[in-house]
Amino acid sequence: MSHYPQARFLLSVSGLDQLARALPEEGREVAVAGRSNAGKSSAINAITERRALARSSKTPGRTQLLNFFELAQGQRLVDLPGYGYAKVSAEVQAGWGQLIGGYLETRECLVGLVLIVDSRRGLSEDDHGLLAWAQVRNLPVRILLSKSDKLNRAEGQKILQQTARDLPPCATAQLFSAQARLGVEEARDALENMLAPAAGNE
Known about the structure:
Layout: E1 8-13, H1 16-22, E2 28-34, H2 40-48, E3 66-72, E4 75-79, H3 90-106, E5 110-118, H4 125-137, E6 141-146, H5 153-165, E7 171-175, H6 184-195
Parallel strand pairs: 2-4, 2-5, 5-6, 6-7
Antiparallel strand pairs: 1-3, 3-4
């Protein structure tokens, strides 16, 4: 049985004005970010144990909206548009950047980030930029080094150690594979810690 039996898709928005009208600043949200081909949808589905909660595409760059999923009352995941996909025009990428940046800067109920990074590629310049922003805002970040089933044990440990050395204090990292179910429970625990009501706010 899923840890989130009530999990459901809530809505997609293309702009912050639409978001303000459709979904008030209530509860707690964790955003899922990463490059377009890092495996964000697969990670969401694995963590929630819902095979098709987030729709993955064989064509990277298809997620162009902020997609909101309710896990339980007052607890939401937000799938952000992927960044860094070369076949998407500069104009489209700029639009995504404004949408993502506006959401991250203004959404007060945002309490954490899950950053999906292809373990075979490592942290990108965009990833480092997002981590620097999270550190300034003091938001916790859990980095999932995805597709780690493609690495042998020694390679996995090496990339994990290399990644950990470059992280700001707000971030932690782990190996992860949605397909092999590697690190799924660990990632879920990190997510639940972020979504848990803060002391005095229950």
